[in-house]
Amino acid sequence: MPAMSFVTHLESTADATSLPARTLQTLHGGKPLLVRYDLDAVRKVMAKDTLRLRAPTLWRYRELLPLERDENLVTLGEGLTPLLPCPRLGAALGCSRLLIKDEGQLPTGSFKARGMALAVSLAKELGVTRVAIPSAGNAGGALAAYAARAGIECFAFVPEDTPVVNVSECVLHGAKTFLVDGLIGDCAKIVREGAQRFSWFDMSTLKEPYRIEGKKTMGLELAEQCLWRLPDAIFYPTGGGTGLIGMGKAWDELQALGWIEPGRRPRMYSCQAEGCAPIVRAFEQGLDASPAIDAPSTSASGLRVPKALGDFLVLREVRASKGRAIAGREQRIGHWMSLCARLEGIALCPESAICLDALEQALARGDVKRDDEVVVFNTGAAQKYVEVIRTTPPRLSWRDVDWGIVERAAG
Ligand SMILES: *Cc1c(COP(=O)(O)O)cnc(C)c1O
Hints:
Blueprint: E1 7-12, E2 18-19, E3 33-37, H1 39-45, E4 83-85, H2 87-93, E5 97-102, H3 112-125, E6 130-134, H4 138-150, E7 153-159, H5 164-172, E8 176-180, H6 184-198, E9 201-202, H7 211-225, E10 233-237, H8 242-257, E11 267-273, H9 278-284, H10 311-320, E12 324-328, H11 333-344, H12 350-365, E13 373-378, H13 386-389, H14 403-409
Parallel strand pairs: 5-13, 6-7, 6-9, 7-8, 10-11, 10-13, 11-12
Antiparallel strand pairs: 1-2, 1-3, 4-5
Helix pairs in contact: 3-4, 3-7, 4-5, 7-8, 8-10, 11-12
The structure holds pyridoxal-5'-phosphate (PLP).
The site of pyridoxal-5'-phosphate (PLP) has 17 residues, from helix 8.
């Protein structure tokens, strides 16, 4: 591997201003930055046929990632998650070619690991010694773990109603963790205001350019797993939107490399919970940016984002791909989680249960055909959501076993 990167510059999504890459950057004109590469040079040194010889982590796409020096690479072995055919769940839904890409198997149990592997590696490379993040779900724990791996000090500010596992994993990995009596926006304000006083680097969603590059590897990986012929439709749960933006960026770069056909991009379905669906509202009203949701409410904590910084990028990708933004029903989350777990053995996070509800709606409307190839992303492991999955099975005494209880449970 060369000790160099193919990055040319960072590009502002506000006005395409070009900014230097080898220095710490946040937003420009209040909008996120995208990493740009010399793809002609990449094409000369990287061949898609030799990829399979590389280690099964996201670092196999090294030339399409921004890191300069291998010694700064911070890894927990992330990437290459399985793409699992789901015939029984598909039959229940009326969708004959359904696949789930199981990101719940990543370090820290969610796809946030991809973004943080890149963001923390680059933070290390650029000399950051202290990071901070507002988080209402999986991002905090993922940052805490990668920061620990890198020997970087981490501060996490989490709303009081954050799922207990997410709070505990921050503490477990040694992040200085604070329970805030407000919403995610209030936590973000603390991170912003403390930046001067504590000189920490703000790792909030889209406020630094590298988490998208990590999420981009979902798209690269999916393309490689599908033998460079992408599926018809992708259902993806949208909170901050980095996953959708990252995958769109992956298709752009693969097209520029000539590795995928331009005319065959998947329709992107952005799925949100009805209790917090700013992108869906904007999509339906034909707006370029979303309104802010006042009182977001859903058990899918990763989707509790009242207004995403990159909303306009998500909307652009969804529309350009001829997809849709769809709101899933909160009261169906338990149904889809248990159906998928029982029929396929895959423990979906509530965010991805919302995707199945959206898929059911899209099938009913005819947006998605029965024989379309559909990929649903499971962005996290159900096991992290004890508040959602907790149940009490029937009790049994071992001293005097009541076999009637067991018999009633038998199939
Ligand atoms: C953060 C998160 C999301 C939303 O991700 P974005 O790509 O930022 O929209 C979805 N699901 C889970 C489990 C998450 O942790």
